[in-house]
């Protein structure tokens, strides 16, 4: 029997009012501006955009402030907001070969044409707390070296020229969209990539790590990792041509994985792919490893029962908003459900006596 | 500069910079009032393969007509209605007799600012380019 219960309005109102006070914290401390979050907590903003699946740094910064820094709560706010927006269309796929790179490294070729560009990275820092950041100092300035903006070619292009790596089949198939239709399995690669791109960083990282430790082992090299801005173009029907509607910062990871061959095909490397909004390289690398593990069927590999190979498992659990929604709802009132269980246990105990 | 180029430039422009360059709006009527929406950004598997949906970005679009009949369109990144309106006005003006003046007063400074911004980023990136050198081994 379903029994509607009312009550608690005053308690809820007061709880939210206290939340607002706690969010502000000690009034003697200056209030945090969303512009400060956008500028100085940029990587949190990037994660919220990537997993919120909406590129808008100002909104992501607002969500982080509103959620008191709980990034999954912030992602939730962004996902809720995006449902209110009319869909104006879909872009022409971004051309990452024309990315204005601020970072571009290859773990496979030291002398990659275009060079190894480290960019603003945490790599090679000593991970020692910098107490100088607790004091207000002068704004640091990055050194510069004379250069003109230039596009750097993809590393996989060089391997592809010699047939050493599998080629992506060119296609203009309209991809299915998780935000428009519920996930249906089996999923094609386009749907898997969308799911991974908006999936939880921690979950994708854990799965990627499991493949490195031997669960669906497919030893990955980072063929190339690049971060930079890409123009976004869209066809405008009223105009009859495509225009750039903006530019987004992206992180792209291409892995070069263990090769396979057969009697008819010479051995060649295989690939995994990661692409994410913002500077989110841990996520992009993880995505590429999991993408590669999920490709076992199309590459004719054995299913060894590893979690990262299990499309249903990965895609059904990657979304942190779905996960947290279902997980957190169990703390909400279940009085009636529990009442029936309680009665059942009592009856069973009586019957046993 | 062709229409595609200037529409892209206006879309990428810093809204505050555009507002400084075009503070007063000529009389206009909207064919489509500024509308905030989302565009699904797509990528390609492996960078060159089949398209997939990466995630959305916010975009504001609008269409308007100036008094002399020129029609302007705009699709600009973000949620700034004034940005979209100004972009559409510049698009309309660029199709009228004042095109050359508008180009010099608005588009050229925007292009310059963008080029400068890109150059600074390229220069900072260049400063982090690794210069390898080979260590000479003792036993050789």
What does this protein look like?
The complex is a heterodimer of chains A (353) and B (140). Chain A has helices at residues 9-24, 34-40, 42-52, 57-66, 71-82, 155-161, 189-198, 201-212, 281-294, 311-317, 320-329, 335-352; strands at 54-55, 87-90, 100-105, 220-236, 241-260, 268-277. Chain A is α+β, with helices and mostly antiparallel strands. Chain A has 2 domains: 9-82, no CATH class; 96-121 and 151-167 and 184-326, no CATH class. Chain A has a 4-stranded antiparallel beta sheet with strand order 3-4-5-6. In chain A, helix 2 packs across helix 3 and helix 2 packs across helix 4 (57-66). The radius of gyration of chain A is 24 Å and the shape is globular. With 140 residues, chain B is α+β, with helices and mostly antiparallel strands. Chain B is 42% helix and 29% strand. At the A-B interface, helix 3, strand 1, strand 2, strand 3 and helix 7 of A face helix 1, strand 1, strand 2, strand 3 and helix 4 of B.
Radius of gyration of chain B: 21 Å
| Percent of residues in helices of chain A | 25-40%
- Average pLDDT, all residues of chain B: 95
- How many whole angstroms does the radius of gyration of chain A measure? 24 Å
Q: H/E order of the elements of chain A?
A: HHHEHHEEHHHEEEHHHH
> Would you tell me the structural class of the helices and strands of chain A?
alpha+beta
Mean pLDDT of chain A: 93
Distance from N terminus to C terminus of chain A (CA atoms, Å) equals 28 Å
Based on helices, strands and strand pairing, what is the structural class of chain B? alpha+beta
Biggest beta sheet attributes of chain B: 3 strands, antiparallel
